[in-house]
Amino acid sequence: METKLIGSKTAEQWEKEFPVLAETAALREVFWINPRYKKGNVELNCFGVSPADMDDASQRLDRFAPFIAKAFPETAKDKGIIESPLKEIPKMLEFLQKEKGADIHGRLLIKLDSQLPISGSIKARGGIYEVLAHAEKLALEKGMLKESDSYDVLLEDSFHDFFSTRELAVGSTGNLGLSIGIMGAKLGLKTTVHMSADARQWKKDLLRSKGVTVVEYEADYSKAVEEGRKLAGPACHFVDDENSKTLFLGYSVAALRLQKQLEAMKIPVDTEHPLFVYLPCGVGGGPGGVTYGIKRVFGNAAHCFFAEPTHAPCMLLGLVTGLQDKVSVGDFCIDNKTCADGLAVGRPSSFVGKVMDTFLSGEVTVSDEQMYRLVYKLADLEDLWVEPSATAGFMGPPGLGSKAGKAWLEERFSASEINNATHLVWATGGSMVPAGEMQKYYETGKSYI
Ligand SMILES: *Cc1c(COP(=O)(O)O)cnc(C)c1O
């Protein structure tokens, strides 16, 4: 009988060599330390991205601020800068310490990308940025715009008419489609969103109400992307979530903003005050871009961990095997079925995986039940309402409280450094979820307590 090879080995051989893969294939929650994490200075000029590109992205978002402030009045109070609050959550900290054995001696913060204006998820960073970058390029090439202009001119009919002759498309499980669709439609671009089977009805309805063409697939995210990419003609700009450096750079700008927010809260981050950041991961662009930015800003003082559903741990498989996008969850007989919107991804980004290979400190995987339960607890204790995927990072601190986690901490940090640490859970989405759906998440979580 012929056995299927994953790279050069069978699943059985992989699982024997890396016990974490056996645990992962058995759908258990795991905590994994990245053995290739690079101590010392990481190489920031890598795989076609650089700190200069990140600054460029930040400046582009500043140029667009006058346009955004007018086009989306809810952003006017922040002068058109799309940003989310950073908040300390002491009651949640107590809950994690008591019930989940989290080894947190410092403080616990939440980054509320769930409340990002315009599209209510982390995709409002990268997704919207890529649409803006594309629109700017078109308008500059056409000679309609100069970088020194006030970009609120983009709201004029002449721009709308011009953009309506240009096509934009994306494949998505939902949240990226929302960001691309809402911004694409606002500019007037002819926008098509290819939605995977798990995408929620309300997202499709909302996009259609804005004039976006929604194409539905019965297959998963990878298929929606593949079909979308195939159907996009040469004149169409396809936002390629699996490979886009533009998306990645849009996400990375978050770190520059985070640095300012921490300063304003007088929370130090340095070798004596380490920062641990926990980020939900789908294809990898969002958490990867943020991690890149964080390593640039804070260097070795910061450690980033990804959190993935036990049913869709694609980045973990890519990193452990080193096969990146040459491995999928299906290869390990994992079904890619999860309640976590945005995280139901079977194959990771190859580009992001290569960068994360030395940047990322580790990963945790989280069950659907756990995510629902955390939705309930966060709402009850802190009155913060997020979608299930946005809670995955909360299992990071308990990971550090496990035996392996403790050993890792104690090897690297003194007792006082551990006491001085800041733990930051990145809550990636939620404010666009209709109230009825949110109530269902809450009730489901409550039933699991
Ligand atoms: C997309 C998404 C993520 C992860 O981003 P990737 O770029 O796919 O890794 C996390 N949380 C939510 C709510 C998302 O929509």
Descriptive report:
- This protein is of the alpha/beta class and 449 residues long.
- It is 46% helix and 13% strand.
- The strands form 2 sheets. Strands 1-10-9-8-11-3-2 form a 7-stranded mixed sheet, with helices on both faces. A 4-stranded parallel sheet has the order 6-5-4-7, with helices on both faces.
- The chain binds pyridoxal-5'-phosphate.
- Residues 121-123, 175, 280-287, 341-343, 387, 389-390, 428-429 line the site of pyridoxal-5'-phosphate (PLP).
Coarse morphology: globular
Number of helices: 19
Count the beta strands.
11
Q: Tell me, rounded to a whole number, the average pLDDT.
A: 95
The proportion of residues forming helix, as a percent range, comes to 40-55%
Tell me the distance between the termini. 46 Å
Which structural class do you get from the secondary structure elements?
A: alpha/beta
Which regions are unreliable across 5 or more consecutive residues at pLDDT < 50? none
Query: The biggest beta sheet, please?
Result: 7 strands, mixed
Q: Rg to the nearest angstrom?
A: 21 Å
Task: Spell out the helices and strands N to C.
Answer: HHEHEHEHHEHEHEHEHHEHEHHEHHHHEH
Please give the order of strands in the largest beta sheet: 1-10-9-8-11-3-2
Bound molecules: pyridoxal-5'-phosphate
Strand content: 5-15%
